[in-house]
Amino acid sequence: MKITSKSFLFISFLIVGLNGCNKDEKTVSPPVPGNEFLTSVRVTATNTTDPTDVQVAIITDTTFIANPPNSINHDTLNLKANSVYTATVEFLDETKNPPGQVTDDIYARRNYHLICFDISSGLNLTVARTDLDTNNPPLQIGLQDRITTGAVSKGTLNVQLRHQPNAKNGDCAPGSTDADVTYTINIY
Amino acid sequence: MTIAGKRSFSQCTLRISGVVYGQDTTERLAGATITIKGSTHAVITDSAGHFVMDSLCTGLYEFSTSSIGFVSTKIEIQLLYDTSISLQLSKDASQLTAVEVTAEKKQDISTNAKSELKGIQLFQTTGETLSGSLQSIPGLNAIQTGPTISKPVIHGLHSNRILILNNGVRQEGQQWGTEHAPEIDPFIANRVTIIKGAASVRYGSDAISGVILVEPSVLAPTNALGGELNLVAGTNGQMGAASGLLQGTIKNLGGINWRVQGSLKKAGNFKTPYYYLGNTGFQEADFSLTANYNNKKGNFGIDAYYSEYHNKLGIFAGSHVGNVADLDSAFARPKPITPSYFTYDINRTYQVVTHDLLKLNGYYIFKNSGRLEVQFSNQKNKRDEYDIDIPYSTDPDVLNMPQISFQIQTQELDLVYHLPVRNNFSGLVGITGYTQGNVFRGIRYLVPNFRNYNGGAFWIERYSKNKLTLEAGLRFDYRWLRVYQINNTSLETYHTTSTYQNPSGTVGASYRVNNKLSFSANIGSAFRAPSVNELYINGIHLSAASYEKGDSTLKSERSYDFTVSGRYEVERFFAELVVYDNIIDNFIYAKPALTPITLISGTYPLFNYTQANAAIKGFDAEINFKITMKLTYDGKASIVRGWNKSIDDWLIFMPADRYINTLRYDFGKWGLTTNWYVNVGLLTVLKQTRTPPNSDYVPPPPGYNLINANTGFQFPIRKTTANIELACTNLANTVYRDYLNRYRYYADDLGRDIVLRFKLNF
């Protein structure tokens, strides 16, 4: 009798166990709302002596964009020789319409981020970061910059967003790369 | 209490064997008498202190051991399986006899090569990960992601290609990932058995190159409350571990045996010889509960087991790379760029993993002595992975979310019937079924949701007569897999269904030439349906800085494993050799594509999952020689060669040649302490020179030599004995990197570690 009741208990355990398997997997969670994909990097350069001379270059990763427009990339920046430009670097989420501003999130975490510039040899150009974070002592960020051009030349400008949580020290080396794009620069 | 000795022995096949020691394990007692109460069974130990009793039935026995000059002792053993006991007699009636009982559950395929870890050897690994504890076994390696994530490798293969049975249940988690370690508390194990070779016939899919069985001790009736306490402390990572166990029998409920077990582990940042590895600590808390009941006749029993595993572990800060340029510069640096220090704090990146397991099983032995076993299990594995950066978002809920979250739940029902032994034939038949549901949530897409249903049926038959055993087995498996995905534009869910059917088989023979020499040969086949990551992954593998693409048309892998092993054992010399050739058709691997893929975060090498025919061959060897009665030499070698036959090149990430040479000195008794030993060992790992071109970012690291040493003894505490060991790994604080450790790109391997272990049975 004891055994029978135990077997009964055992079988009911089985039934409960098997019925317990719900079908959660049929609900596929959509991409998390509120999360932003970093899809595009845009550089905007404004001539300090001529506010109407605004040059824009943008590079977009179309991997996440369902139907990317054809002419999404303008990767060339045309700059006047021997001039000074104020520049901004922006990071966008173009999976959304209108595009989401990832730049704001990066600025909010500016103590963990650094924008690094690499200029190809022969290109007469310098880039200086003009904004500072709230580290002690403050370190540069690079979302706001000053571009100074020299003589007529052509080359490339590589822009990297370095992510440096608990490791930022002003150098580009620590941390990892969140964005890495290369623009063509034409100084005329 | 009914003693089973009164039953007829004619149909019973269980064996109890053991060794009787004097006051120290260097003193083996010849001529000791072992008798069973209520029966005429009696044996006398041979010159090496060994004894064997055959033809015993299941049930409760009372054994008496006596030897002139020693106190006679009585022990009760619940026999369910073949059992080995080690008895240490004492001359003083006030001191308790030390007894170690291990149930030798006979492997269902007996001609496979296998190794075991139990008793003192298992004690010498306490505090390590499951995979770390198996490193002393020839043919085994570990694939590591830093000091805390370690996965066992058998004959060159790991993850989905080996099977881990956690207390008799197939461990099911996200085992496809090389940084997803087995979710098992090693402290539950009383014995770990490694089956080397393809063993799908008994265990189902995934046993391509071996099976690891993690088994607690058999829970048997006791008169008093008993237990075990383990304490471990290590200098590297300031690691501490404590594990305790209590067990007893509730007599007035008809004899329900129970056990409660729990473990706590914690470590902070680990250290290489010259610097700390930032964010490499972990915290783990596990427990298990067991209860069982066996009827007095010994022909019916049920068992319930529940366990939980909780782990939080940090991922080395220096291992986070955005793209290949980051990885190249990390490798070029002599040490990580951001210096670290000791702390127990765990920051992002980290993993939180939980694993719950419920197992219910029962057996019934029929009048014809056939044995029916039923087992149901339900396991839930949850894995949350938090990236180094909080998501780009201002929504507080999103900020606290893991970037990746998997939950997989598995229910399994097994029915196995062990046929009665007739005319030297024995065998078993079984059917098994399981279903899994996988739910993925995350910010980064990795693998899709799925549901699968699996069914299998097998039959294994064995013929044993005198010195010869022959066996053969057949199995058929069916898998139905439905994958659920979402269209990111329309947000509609769609699904894809595939089915896989796989026959598998085994034939084997073993021949015992005499008491000293025996041979075994086994041809086993195994299969593995492609895992869901191999079918559907599409994204950046963050810690590997690679972009991986799955292929939904992949077929099942199939292996044909030929293993021959020989064993020679005399009193002062022991040698074992295992030679294998594992031919794997449709071997799935990530093949480097010629063109890289460019994303906003940089350029990544692209790897496409594809199939090829491969072969893995090699051998494991061990020699043990007692130079004097107190000084012993032990040598082990593990050699593996993996070859991709389709492209005529080496397989990547195969273990390098590995040798362990150890000298052991037994001091014996010293004052109150007994069984003093000192081991000094040299671990030699050669450089892996056999790698395919263009499939790795950096060349394999040079070979290395590590000196390891340990010493330990037993001493009496009240009426019981305690074990103590002091061990030191990497004694010379050698700087090295291991080919199978993925952190070799970023940092050196661990420096010196001094570990103190304590174990008390009461």
Report on this structure.
The complex is a heterodimer of chains A (188) and B (762). With 188 residues, chain A is mainly beta. In chain A, 13% of the residues lie in helices and 38% in strands. Chain B is mainly β. In chain B, 4% of the residues lie in helices and 57% in strands. Chain B is globular and about 80 Å long. The two termini of chain B are 23 Å apart. Chains A and B meet through helix 1, helix 2 and strand 10 of A and helix 4, strand 22, strand 24, strand 25 and strand 26 of B.
Structural domains of chain B: how many: 2
CATH topology of the largest domain in chain B: Maltoporin, Chain A
The low-confidence runs of chain B, each spanning 5 or more residues with pLDDT under 50, are 1-10
Helix content of chain A: 10-25%
Oligomer: heterodimer
Describe the sheet with the most strands of chain A.
6 strands, antiparallel
- Strand proportion of chain B, as a percent range, falls in over 45%
> Strand count, sense and closure of the main sheet of chain B?
22 strands, antiparallel, barrel
Rg of chain A computed from alpha carbons, rounded to a whole number of angstroms: 26 Å
Terminal residue distance of chain B: 23 Å
Pick out its properties.
heterodimer; A: 188 residues; mainly beta; six-stranded antiparallel beta sheet; four-stranded mixed beta sheet; 2 helices; 13% helix; 38% strand; globular; B: 762 residues; Immunoglobulin-like; Maltoporin, Chain A; 2 domains; 22-stranded antiparallel barrel; five-stranded mixed beta sheet; 6 helices; disordered N terminus
